[in-house]
Amino acid sequence: MLIVADDRLIVRNAIRAAEELGLPVSTTAPAPGAPPTVVIVDLDTPQATQVVADAKGRSPTTMVVGVLSQPSGEMWTQAEDRGCDVVTSRGALRKTLLSKVPPWLESPGGRRLRLFPVDDIAGRLGLVMRIEDSPVGPLAVFHIAGEILAVEDHCPHAGATLSQGPISLDDGIVTCPEHGSRFDTRTGERVRGPADDPIRTFRVTVEDGSAYLHVL
User: Fold this and answer.
1) 31 has pLDDT over 70
2) What count of other Cβ atoms lies within 10 Å of the Cβ of residue 176?
3) Rounded-to-integer distance, Cα 212 and Cα 35, Å
4) Which residue spans within 35-144 are E strands per DSSP?
5) What is the pTM of this model?
């Protein structure tokens, strides 16, 4: 566990949690080729944004935990948008680490991206978001019959943008606007050619009122 913080309470709570989890602790940059399992970042420090970017750049399987001394809804959202996998307060840090780190270790690479508050798509159906630049390429997010579905926004036949084609609100089938290939947005299955291959789908979960895309 790498701790990047000057706040003594953050450091103390992180060390206590690391001891209980059986993780080694460091407050210096890890050696090349040895990315830390967990990085704790004091988001009030000037280098916080760069630390988060560096941690994810070195290894997407590293869990980045951002800590806010005076959290607010807006600051929380900004931290998640920066790339933090988990955001918490100083006082709740130890408890958060003890509950969040074990599942992450059991399924390494559980990186997720915050999409939007689910209230934002209430009453909206079909395409609700397109992400041009994600760790796995362009993505399209659909809201179909109460489900939030995410797929690669790229037709495997000739590379057309799938989200520009029509989407069926009955069965979640999206049709490529170029050559008419059809895909099931729930499973990625190719329903009709000329495409030969399916499309990738990505798990979306809802937590604390926000939708999260799991990209790895």
Assistant:
1) no
2) 26
3) 24
4) 38-42, 63-68, 86-89, 112-117, 126-131, 139-144
5) 0.58
